[in-house]
Amino acid sequence: MNETPQPTPVNRLSNQLPPTGPQPYQPHVQYQTSGYTPYPAMAPLPPTPTIGQRLSAAAESGLIGRVLAGVGVAITLSGIVMLLVLAAQAGLLRPEVRVAGGGVLATALTALGIWIGRTPAKRPGAIAIVATGIAGLLFDVLATSAIYHWLPSAAALGIAGAIAGGGLYIAHRWESQTLGLMVSIPVLLLAPIVTQGIDETLVAFMIVYVAATTWIQVGRDWTAMFLVNAAAVIIPAGIYPQFAENPWVAASLALAGVAVLIGSSVFIARTSSNPELIALAAAIGALPLITSVTDLGAPAAALLASGAAVFSAAAFGTARTLGRDVRIMWLIPSGLLLLLAAGYAVDTAYRPSTILAAAVVLAGASFYARDLALPIRVIATVFGSIGILMLNAYGAAAQVFVPTLDERSTYASLLVGTVVGLITTALLTWSWATAFGTHALRITMAGGVTALWLITTGSLSVAHLITDDVDAAFRAGHAATTIIWGSVAVVALLKARRLAGSDRAVVLTAGLAVMTAAIGKLFLFDLAALDGVYRVIAFIVVGLMLLGLGVSYAQTLVASDDEPAHA
User: Fold this and answer.
1) Would the CA dihedral through 93, 98, 102, 104 be positive or negative?
2) How does residue 566 score in pLDDT terms, banded at 50, 70 and 90?
3) What mean pLDDT value characterizes the chain?
4) What is the CA radius of gyration of the chain?
5) N- to C-terminal Cα distance for the chain?
6) CB atoms within 10 A of CB 559
7) How remote is the C-alpha of 342 from its chain's centroid?
8) Which pLDDT score is estimated for 292?
9) Which CA distances in Å does 406 have to 393, 453, 525?
10) What is the pLDDT of residue 44?
11) Distance from CA of residue 85 to its chain's centroid?
């Protein structure tokens, strides 16, 4: 018999248990929990370089060489100065030996530097040698005039200019601002030692040096050299007036410094990456001129006006080559110098009138100044404000309240100032209103109020000029003032009838305000201060004005009521 095979029993738990016996290796898997981000491993910090390594890097970059060369320039030039000055004070060596020795050493250094610098790779070191030689030659020439008086100042300055302009041709050819700085800085610091103080020779020497070295900076972006040269002019020229025996010499040198700085900045600013800084440095050159004319009196006005003309010429003459911001920086000192010139030009009594006259000129010029119209208009407004304030301070305002006069002025000077102030106000109002048409009416109202005040002070001055009776002039002037105020208010109110909208509101408000002021003055001041015929005239005239205005406005209302309504 065939037996049926029996099925093999299956252990169901064996599929759920881990197999026994050796198993193949499986790498360990690290499971990341939610929200956890492991930090990346930090790279090890580079080791801190030692002092020796830093010095080696500086040597390779040329820094150590430049530092050593700069120190060498300073020490060598100090030695040349000692040879020229200290040896002379101690009586060592003959003067001829000192000057010749310094000149030979400086010439040899210049020639050696030029020879070494033939190879571009060697020029960093050659620059320091050439700079030492050129500066030494300048000191040598300066000593022949300032210490030994062998050469007239003019001749020494001419030779120094030739050395500076020709010697620094190397800087121009090598395109090295460093060479120019290595000459300019020692000259600025050591030249006062050679001249044994700040005198006219030193100031003139610096001016000639800056003028002679301008051409090498043209076409280059050498802002640093111009700033050093500007300091070389401004600092001595600003200090020298404190020691000058002749103020005319100090003022003339300061004016020459202004001309040189402005002339050089006009050419250098064109290619500078910082033309505003160039213009600012040149503008600071006006300060020595201001401080040097304080003892000259009225003639100082001519020097100050000349300086203002130099700045103005630079501002307007460079419209096609320089930006507006640069030229504005020259307009500011021009305005300041012109303001001071107006103050020095006349005595105290007519000083406000002169300043106001300058404001008239500037206000007229603003119509033709193109892109500089706004700054000129601002300067003119400043002039006008200062002039009117000074006019009030000198007695124009005081005479409105008391029948006495400030001792700094006369009634004639006040009247002249009033007339010029009215012209200034009219031109400025016209200029501002033309430039800002949307605010023309408000600008006109502001100008009208200023003009009304000037007319008030002017009417009192006229009254005092007509009669010697102070009390009568005071009453007559105030009666005329009240009538003038009322007349202006009448004109404004009649004008308002022809306007519409916001313009009518502005004019109507201004007219009513002036009329209110006239009525208030009539009752609060004139009623007590005036007497007799002056009080009568003031009340009758103002009363008639009010009656006429009432009739005029009543007719306007009637006419408007009679107009037929439109459907």
Assistant:
1) negative
2) very low
3) 82
4) 42
5) 132
6) 9
7) 20
8) 92
9) 9, 18, 22
10) 61
11) 40
> Is there a contact between 258 and 307 (Cβ–Cβ < 8 Å)?
yes
Determine the longest span between alpha carbons in the chain, in angstroms.
172
Spatial contact of 391 and 414, defined as CB atoms under 8 Å apart: yes
User: What is the rounded (10 degree) CA torsion for 308, 311, 312, 318?
Assistant: 170
Read off the pLDDT band of 20 (50, 70, 90): low
| Helix/strand/coil (H/E/C) assignment for every residue in 137-149 | HHHHHHHHHHCCC
Between CA 323 and CA 330, with CA 327 as vertex, the angle to 5 degrees is: 160
Please tell me the distance from the alpha carbon of residue 356 to that of residue 333, in angstroms, as a whole number: 18
Q: Band the pLDDT of 356: cuts 50, 70, 90.
A: very high
Q: Tokens 């404000």, residue?
A: 385
Residue 415 in this model has a pLDDT that exceeds 70: yes
Which of 105-109, 284-288, 559-563 has the highest average model confidence (pLDDT)? 284-288
Q: Could you tell me if 214 and 232 are in contact, meaning their C-beta atoms sit under 8 angstroms apart? A: no
The span from the CA of 73 to the CA of 77, in Å, is 6
Provide the 3-class DSSP secondary structure of residue 318: coil
What's the CA gap between 298 and 347, in Å, rounded?
A: 8
Q: Give the alpha-carbon dihedral of 362, 364, 368, 369, to 10 degrees.
A: 20
- State the number of CA atoms in the 13 A half-sphere of 285 facing the CB: 37
pTM: 0.76
CB distance 548 to 493 below 8 Å: no
